[in-house]
Amino acid sequence: MVKSSFTARTTNYERRGIPMTVGPLEIGLVVLVIVLLFGARKLPELARSLGRSMRIFKSEVKEMKDENNTTNEQGQIAASKKNDEDFWNSPEMQPRSTKPVDGTQN
């Protein structure tokens, strides 16, 4: 039987029963490594830069959503106008002639 490549694979830690969670100790170690790598003087600058980047990213996402909503609204308006035009231009909605079809006059 061939095993599917989409089956969930377990890690060695999961097989041994060791949970893969991030606790306060792991977070503290990551912060310590960051402080050691970048130094205490660079951290405020990095935080400011990260904050600016997040702000720009959020504004771009919001702008894309607004643009998408505007495009959808314009498409719906255009579709409704086309439907209205199709309705009024249909043969059933055109004025009927008053002349008899057989060519006789009353």
UniProtKB/TrEMBL annotation:
The keyword Transmembrane applies. One of its GO terms (molecular function) is protein transmembrane transporter activity. Residues 91-106 have a biased composition (Polar residues). GO terms for biological process: protein transport by the Tat complex. Its main location: membrane. PANTHER family: SEC-INDEPENDENT PROTEIN TRANSLOCASE PROTEIN TATA. NCBIfam families: PRK00575.1, tatAE. Part of the twin-arginine translocation (Tat) system that transports large folded proteins containing a characteristic twin-arginine motif in their signal peptide across membranes. TatA could form the protein-conducting channel of the Tat system. Belongs to the TatA/E family. This is Sec-independent protein translocase protein TatA. It comes from Corynebacterium minutissimum.
